[in-house]
Each structure stands twice: as C-alpha cells, then as structure tokens.
Write a structure and sequence with these properties.
Elements lengths: L7 H28 L10 H18 L12 H24 L10
Helix pairs in contact: 1-2, 1-3
Pfam families: EMC6_arch (PF19094)
Keywords: Membrane, Transmembrane, Transmembrane helix
InterPro entries: EMC6-arch (IPR043941)
Amino acid sequence: MEINTPTREERIAHHKRGIKMVLLPALMGSLAGIISSPYFLSPGNANFSFLILALAIYVQKFIFPQIGIKSSEFGFKDWFFVGFMSLSYWFVIWTIILNGPAPAFGPFF
C-alpha cells in the first residue's frame, strides 16, 4: 500500500480554497444581514429578510467560479456548509443591528 502525500503546492492550494470557502459565505451572510436591517426594511417584514438570505446563498453559486472554485462539483455537504455559514453570519449581524446600541447605563451599574 502506497501513501500519497500531497506536495507543498497542493497543500497551499487546498488551504487557499478553504479560506475562500469560508470567506465568501461570511461576507455574503454579513451583507444579507445588513440589507435585512431595519434601516432598509421594517422588522414586520421579516419574511422578506429570509428571501434576502436565500438570494445571498443562491448568488454564491455564480460567484464561486469567479474566484476559482468549481461550484458545479459541490455536493450536499458543501452546499450545507455554505448555507449554514451564510445563515449564521446573517443572523448575528441582523440581530446586532436590530438590537441597536447598548444604553449608557446598564441594569447592573
């Protein structure tokens, strides 16, 4: 049995691909969270915010080839990762914006 060890260039290429796979969903999720904020939409239209999130996930299908990742070869696990990362960043950014700034004096001061 022969063990095939990746070369240094292959390891670097795989690492760069991983960074791109994390960075794009993070940026798209954050952008969707900002667009879903109450500055652009009222909180009563929360269903429309889910549409913005879905569009942010769908658009990544066309952005990945532009940055050198073949999205046509993605399996369920890859798309689940992209969707989960986008959802996570969308939710965190949207929640921070919806809650607004903290008051000057908290309940414990």
